User: Fold this.
Amino acid sequence: MATASPPLISSLNSTSTSFRTRTSLPTCSFSPKLLRPLASFSVKASRKQVEINVFLRITGKREDGFHDLASLFHVISLGDTIKFSLSPSKSKDRLSTNVSGVPVDARNLIIKALNLYRKKTGSNKFFWIHLDKKVPTGAGLGGGSSNAATALWAANQLNGGLVSEKELQDWSSEIGSDIPFFFSHGAAYCTGRGERLRLDQTSNVDPLTLLENVTNNGVSQSICVNDLELPAFQVLPSLKRLKQRVIASGRGEYDAVFMSGSGSTIVGIGSPDPPQFIYDDEEYKKVFLSEANFMTREANEWYKEPASASATTSSSESRLEIPNEM
Assistant:
């Protein structure tokens, strides 16, 4: 498979009934350096807001008013870090975080995942969890779903591996339809139900053709088709302007510039360096920038930086510290 040079990413958010965006103005910039082999295409997920979508096609409208989606998902190396340790409590988990505004009770997907694990396995173990949040909330990168998958995996490790990863993957769909993706090898061609959307114009490109092209030739602008860009840009013109400015300022440095999912993240592949205007223009002073790589994982291991064993397990301390990649 062809390799892809580094990308850049940016995100903008606004309130809308059609898109899961926020009123803040974070812009994320990543730069994946290598598109690794697509090791798994068997996962089926219903929603689209995970790490980055290399492409996203609307393939049809369902009788229930939702749309069928086809998308190539890929994990990237931007993520939160979660620490797990066994708690002496026999009745509840305790979750803490480094940022305000994040629920630490049963509304949080981490707690939901741990409750689900106990329900399915009969385990009576509870946990102390600390979430060190690095990913902006509302960027549409699937941080909550990734954290839930990580919690299921960690709970299973700290219970001695009671069940298989396939069982964890199957259970995870009960609390979030995009969570099963994270139990793939890090890349998956996913199909399923999308949110209720009003779409006036979509691409006629066959998603399987896009998949074949990216497998054979790597990522390019013609492959990164996203049918949600047009309606998202109508809701938030500043997001469209950001994409246009990244393309113009890149002067051909980027192999592709595109919106991931329903927003509000703009991805630039081809260079690790953000355009100068993001640093200089007052409009983008609250932009969040980050370089990242595409990532995969081995069976029975969680996502970790290739250069270091940053995910560690200690049976004596019953503790896990996991860099939770998106």
